[in-house]
Amino acid sequence: MDRPNAVARNGRLAIGLVVVAVLAVAGGAFMAGRGPVVSPSTAAEPLAETPAAVSAVTVRLAELPTGRAPQVAYLSGRVVKGGLGDDITVPGKEDILRAARFEGDALVILDVGTGDTELVQVSSGSGIDSGSRVPAVASLVTSIDEDAVAYGTARTNADHTRRQGNAVYWRNSFDDQKLDRPDDWASTVLAVVGSTVYFAATTDPDNPVATLNVWHTQTGKVDVLTSFKTPAGVDLQGTNGVDQISGAAQTFCSALRQLANGKQLWRTCEYSLNGFTPDGETVYATPDFRAEGADPSVTALDSRTGNVRRQWTGLQFLSTAAEDDDHLLMAVDTGESTPVAIIRCSIGSGDCELAVSPTKVARRDALWLMGSWS
Q1: What is the pLDDT of residues 147-173, one digit of tens each?
Q2: Phi and psi for 71 in degrees, rounded to 5?
Q3: If 318 and its partner were Cys, which of 23, 118, 254, 331 is the partner (CB 3.0–4.6 Å)?
Q4: How do strand 37-38 and strand 264-268 relate by DSSP bridges?
Q5: Do residues 138 and 117 lie in contact, with contact meaning Cβ atoms separated by under 8 Å?
Q6: Kindly report the CA angle at 270 between 265 and 272, in degrees rounded to 5?
Q7: How far are the Cα atoms of 1, 8, 33, 258 from residue 237, in angstroms, in the given order?
Q8: How far is Cα 55 from Cα 41, in angstroms, rounded to an integer?
Q9: How much is the pTM?
Q10: Residues 6+ apart with CB under 8 A from 225
């Protein structure tokens, strides 16, 4: 697990990505049993600043005070809210799979039927830009300052099987680049840091093994980080990444690795790691690797050690995103067919407040946070 990354440039990749969920559904559970497994070199480091145990915070939705609205993008029905720019209504009836802010507009992935998708750019004044449509886009990420975006395609055949030949795109306000991937059965973007794009490429439609790829858009060079077997995400600093490891009887573990050398910092078989805070110091997690439905808790883990920093229970957690280095936003309800709200919770104190008041909508039409992967 701790061997250095072997870097292969522009070579054939062999991965099968456990696809990053386009709508962030996250949570976590601090189990009393087996905890994170830390590599020997990490275990020797001083951990005085990390508490030995953190009690769970039970959240009671009806008792929360009201705070400010979310400061990152979220979806309320067909309206993209939060983040930079005005509220933007997405025309049409197609399901919205993912949305992101870019240059005051919204980039949106739509389900256009029979398993097909497309990316469109939507403005508050003129709706969908007909010239912006990109077919088969299935993943979309933005940089920490929302000044660069990346997206990747995952083409399918009429029978919903994967179709070979995909691409990765990068854009900022001044430039745009496209990387053709003729051998990929899916090209899934995980993070964009400046002009560098981290993505996973599936080059065997039946093989779950994955590698992590780094596209330097200004030179065109692509590095392959072979220490990652099934990459699930990368932090917004481009420092660490999450690798999902499959085991016997459909069990899964998550490992946190350094991108520079592939070193495994720690792993856990209790949590699925679903996203990082902007500074990369905290990773939030859920026990549900399938990223479906709701979870009974959200857990914040120290990204250096895997130790639990904070945990919230008492609600059903639908999706989670980091708002800043200390605050997580969570879309929650108290059960199927109950009002959905967004709450803001401090990792440092555990305190929570309402960011969006409870709204009576079906879960599939509920409030969704856009800034997470799982």
Answers
A1: 999 999 999 988 888 899 999 999 999
A2: -100, 5
A3: 331
A4: antiparallel
A5: yes
A6: 75
A7: 22, 22, 32, 11
A8: 28
A9: 0.83
A10: 5, 7, 211, 212, 213, 214, 241, 259, 262
